[in-house]
Amino acid sequence: MKHGNKTRICILLVILTASLQAAFASQVSGYLDNFEKRLTKFTLDNGMEFLVLERHEAPVVSFITFANVGAVNEVKGITGMAHIFEHVAFKGSPTIGSKDYKAESKALEKIENAFEALKAERSKGDKADKAKLDLFTKQFKDAQEKADKFIIHDDFEQTLSREGASGLNAFTSNDETAYVSSLPSNKLELWMYMESERFYEPVLREFYKERAVVMEERRMGENDPEERLMEDFLSVAFKAHPYGEPVIGYMSDLDAISSTKAMAFYNKYYCPANLTAAIVGDVDPQQVKKLAVEYFGRIKARPKPEPVSTVEPPQKSEKRVVMREDAQPFLIIGYHTPSFNHPDSVTLETLSDILSSGRTSRLYKSMVKEKRIAVGVSAGTGLPGNKYPALFTFMANPSKGHTNQECEDEIYAQVEKLKTEPVTAEELQKAKTLAKASLIRQLNSNMGIAMQIANYEVLTGDWRNLFNRIDAIEKVTAEDIKRVSNEYLAAENRTVGCIETKNATK
Questions:
Q1: In this predicted model, what pLDDT tens digit does every residue of 472-483 receive, in sequence order?
Q2: Model-level pTM?
Q3: CATH at 69
């Protein structure tokens, strides 16, 4: 009788799984068909690309401008530049943020001259003249104070906020910089004007003030053991590729970066051909195109920068970073893997879900629920970026009375199982269902859609790959999981980082 009940339950589970598969497949396919009908894509003569998706459910619209530039495009000497420029991109233009731009521009020039004089004297090190340092420091400070009199502070944000903007923000990652906002749909032209102004003729006013803000962020990060471990871990994992450099930048670089260098960075990387705008909401694509030509079409075409050419050499032996701190233990393990556009990336993504998505995942069940050696554990792809080959990572927080080594040993034990034993059909299907459900959740809002279509357009060259990736995940097999585990999760291909608590009781 009990055997019969189990059989009926298994049959019901099979039927339910099949029904969910069919429902998800239909839903994802329906989204793609729906998007195809409602999405308009066009490119201006200067090379800037626009994706416009109509959603007329409410009189609002979300905007995201993706600049295809991030920390990965920096070199030694200007680390942190992409992040600093993101800050000053909110400072306006000659017509936004200034009481008298003609006078302000002269004041800004004096700031730059004072900074270069101060920087030159500092570069002499021990031979620097203290009297000159004091003089140049005073001149630098005085020049900033004089320029400040011409500024309408926060004019860019406040103008948009007064007109109903919400979610006005920006972020910088290794791969890109993005500027986001949402507005009532009758403010479309206002967004076109404001957003185009910051890329048409940006004025880097308050540059050194914003640089100081970034430097303070750097100091705060230096007080966080896990952030310091992550920085050291990535610098060891990547000995050649710029993924090993911190997005926040090094303090000495931040201290030496000038407004002049920031403008050179803008001229190189903020060309129209390196910008993609996604606009989602209650809009008319033809009106969007007309306004885009009028406002963004003003920006002169410039050569599109080449991608990073440095390739990380194959890793031949395990690397290890150990920090001993007055902090809780923490473990991170990273294996070099291909970029997001490589066919194996979908298999690795599925593998990460099998390992750590949900309370029935392999790592959670083993390390948190059964052995109780960790309070948290995760596996994931794409650290620190997706554009170039990156890392498949494991992270664990050992529970009280347990160690990083215990967590490390159990992670390796689970990895070895993947190399020799096929994952179950149930595990594989659960991971695929999670991937589809995650996609659908991300498409529930204007901003969510804008973020996804812009990201896929920039990263893969076609926004449709947002949906094509689901088809690719559906084709992943247990043999694929076994193959990538053997190919990439090898001891000689890994970097290990950990925080060991000082004077911990053994």
A1: 999 999 999 999
A2: 0.92
A3: 3.30.830.10
